Amino acid sequence: MLKTEVGFKSIDIIKEDTYALQKNIGAFHELQTSLRDIAAELEKSFESKTGSKINEELKKYEKQINNNIFNEHVHLANSCGKK
Q1: Checking CA distances to 66, which of 1, 34, 49, 73 falls within 20 to 30 Å?
Q2: The pTM is what?
Q3: How many structural domains are present in the chain?
């Protein structure tokens, strides 16, 4: 009985974590779209190296955030179903 209860609790935790991760991925995609729009506008508005540098920095941060989300997703996927 305890094993079954622990199993159900584990499934609940996995579902909650999966939902939180999906919610964060959705928020990231919205942020990513906004950043890309801003980067495109900056590139158009600056006829100098400044716009390009800002765009490079935005892309760097986007890549870091994307990698972090991917790693969290892999960690969560690997932990699902393990006892």
Answers
A1: 49
A2: 0.47
A3: 1
